[in-house]
Amino acid sequence: MQFKLLLIFCFVFSGAIYAQPPSILILGGNMIDGTGSKSKRADLRITGGLIAEIGNLKPLPNETVIDAKNKIVAPGFIDIHNHSETGLAKQPTANSQILQGITTLGVGPDGESPWPIGEYLARRSEQGIAVNVIAFVGHATVREIVMGKDYKRAATKAEIAKMAELVEQGMREGAVGLSSGLEYDIGFPSSTEEVIVLAKVVAKYGGIYMSHIRDESDSMLKALEEAIRIGREAKIPVQISHIKMGTVGVWGKSLEAVQIINDARKDKVDVTADCYPYDAWHATITVLVPSRKHDNVNEVAKGFADVGGPENITISSCSHHREYEGKTLDKLADENKTTAIEMYMRIVKDGGAYIVCRSMIEKDIETFYKQPWVMVASDGGINGRHPRGAGTFPRVLGRYVREKKWLKLHEAIRKMTSAPAARLGLKDRGILQVGKKADIVIFDAKRVLDQATFTKPFEVPLGITDVFVNGTQVVKASGVTGATPGLVLKK
Ligand SMILES: [Zn+2]
User: How many whole angstroms separate alpha carbon 170 and alpha carbon 147?
Assistant: First the structure.
């Protein structure tokens, strides 16, 4: 008798430990699978972090059932350009990211990356994170390691060779590509040839070249040609970051940019781009004056005119003058009884600032989003001061799909899922299919909408109810569960 009891006990006990993790059934939803196909009625079963079954399914005993009736079930969003590098360390649950449906994000864009890459990724893995993370090697990062403070010049051959070694190290440690920020101070003095040498190293590892191009204003088209040349000569896929026509002088010329990219694509250069859904950018104040002549009155005046005037320029963060934050340059000039040009010079001299600058027009954003090779990416991150950090993906779904009807819903989802997955070589994500990783977002297509604004950048979006990362629920009833099932994804 006692023996029998013991047997039963062992059976129950081992069952509790060794049983398959319980399955989850997403029931009654309309599935958009990420490939660009239209939505269809389908239930999904998740087991062991994977999509186990898709079809007309019945709940199993003890199964967790998620009611997806009247909702869209889609692959989790993949954000190829994200600034959560330090944010992830401080807040591993990545609240503002998962609440907008992001399940994989790429850190290290714009030429600035964590370093060493291997150590950064290992830390995230040990710490536990809610989202999957990939990393780029930053061109400016390796350039600064090699050249130190003496970066305002072309690099020597020996210096470029050293940078190439570091890029190689980054790729060996799991990076997915090289990012550059050629419009920023450290990247700007580099020659095209320097970047080509580094891109060739990345090409060897099957990575991509992702660039915030040298100019997003009057010389945008020329800068685009440079990025394409780098792709052609290094034989590497090119991702144009946050494509935009950023000054009055190029407003309305998005079709010319599209033509240049289409020609390159016909010519077998693999060029794609991403775009964020806002008419204002967020960057260092010095990019207003591409010539770098920050104390030349005419150059600064031109910089202001290019963006429609100093009333379009808001200081978002300024470590030397916290009191400037949230104010426009013309307001600051008034308060300080000076001119906006003088204000600019003072801020640059005192150590610079980050600004939000309203300098794009919607027509260009629409043109870009309508290109099949343009993806959705945020350029934001955890605790970013630009509303894109919390609102990008629901903003596209709510405003550009539902309200303005620029895109079909299934096409917008493709731009958020399988398109970036293909770009990054993530073979088991970005599509809802049996056997793929269960990164899934569930939302109400009639309600989904961003709420974050320039004055309230952290507001949580509406309509995104449930998010799964590797089969574990990270968002439930539009709230953060606190689970950290994210993985480090290496090339
Ligand atoms: Zn950028």
Answer: 18
